[in-house]
Batch of 4 targets.
Target 1
Amino acid sequence: MKRKYQKTLELTFHRPVSGNIKWSDIESLFIELGAEISEREGSRIGVRLFNDRKVFHRSHPSPNTDKGAVANIREWLRENEVIP
């Protein structure tokens, strides 16, 4: 895994939850892990990864991801044994 994606993964698992992770970096991490991303209604995106499908809300107008979303993503990655 490239350093950029590793850094995003580390930020995702950092305690306390970081509010400074750009959503575009999280999307790039998903793609690096092999995800298929599809546009949904409004600012939602569908992420198909780990034989599972999740729907996330793309953050706006701020590019930073909501802390609750980061916590949910961290738990999803942990469940599928993706840890820094």
Target 2
Amino acid sequence: MKKASVLIVLFVFPLVAYLFFASGVNNFGRLPILTQNIPELDNFEGGARLNNKITILGFLGNNIDYKKGNAFNLNQKIYKRFGKFTDFQIVMVVPEGEEENVEVLRKDLGKLSETDRWNFVYGSEGDVKSLFKSLETNLTLDEDLGTSYVFIVDKDRNLRGRTDDEDEGTKYGFNTTSVADLNNKMEDDVKIILAEYRLSLKKNNADRSN
């Protein structure tokens, strides 16, 4: 009996663990696409593009002082961790006329970290609303054309999120007011999409070398 128990511990348990984690990789190795073909930022001033970038997309609105805390949370919990990745960027959509307030925010963020991959784009009220509507989420913009939620957009301009979130079911965005949401969910999902692209790149490189 003792020998049998030892054999189970040495051989069966590792096999079960392997199958469990292998299954997890297959099921959770990709972040689900929730909305396809989000428009490029052609109607916005500022120079940022969504194509070929992993983008954290946010809407600051025209009350930027009110959203500063959200920006700081995003900077500390997400940007500082992933901002060094070449294809990663943050794009904040702002109504026209807020350029000076944005520069103040950029300087404040610069006291916490470099801001090379923080981008701000400016558009009309109609353009801001149209871009947000194109995400096709269950969320809404505030009266000031802003929201505390940010969204993960992949290199092909698809909105990524969760279809089986334990709290929300379908999870379109991440609440920058909630450090827990950023720490416990958004950080994991950004890791997944970055790993997805790294694996894809390695596969392409391996195919070329064969």
Target 3
Amino acid sequence: MRLTDFWNRMYRHFGEAYAESWAKDYVLAGLGGRTVEQALAEGLSAKQVWQAVCQEVEVEPRLR
């Protein structure tokens, strides 16, 4: 998964205004206690991060 695809899915699920804030502030257990931004900055793939987001919140099947 490309990073642009990841962010498009985030925007579609959370809305453009909330997606970046959620990625910056919400700590996910599935990312080892990191936020989305921290995980991406530390080199986790966009696919791994998206899978952790999907485990944390209910995402529409078409976006999974």
Target 4
Amino acid sequence: MEKYGAGSIVVSDYDPNWPILFSQERTRIEQALGAFALAVEHIGSTAVPGLPSKPIIDLLVGVPSLEEARQRCIKPLEAFGYIYMPQYASWIPDELFFRKGPPGPWTHHLHVMEPSHPRWDARLVFRDYLRAHPDVARAYADIKRALATSSKDNIEAYRTGKDVFVAETTAKARVWRALAEDQ
């Protein structure tokens, strides 16, 4: 069982400072990586206004080459307080994963990947769909709060407990976006 770094999993009410914290961190990442960072996106629940979340800012950084990112990104990001977590490669392949903050509670999660990877699009369309559908975001909040209570400090159970909802919502989000693009 993978334990949550801060003890019990807590889903906090939405904090309007989360977008500000993202913006500040995006600036730091852009300084650290320069033009190698093709895009820096705010993802996860803290990127959806009104959605309760674990108070961790999730960032998605697009790079032209993951292989090159292994050589060019780890040291500059570590200089900004990020800890590279290579052990996560089995759970989230084809990306580099970093955490920032004391050894729990973590304040930031950073995902580095190529924008051509299917997970890039999935994360963005899921976020955008929740932003546009507050009723779906509320349903997601209910699931997250129930999982936080039942999972206690088992972060793997918390993550996998959301899988079906995320997969189904992402599929709906792709249809929603395709319909919007056709108009």
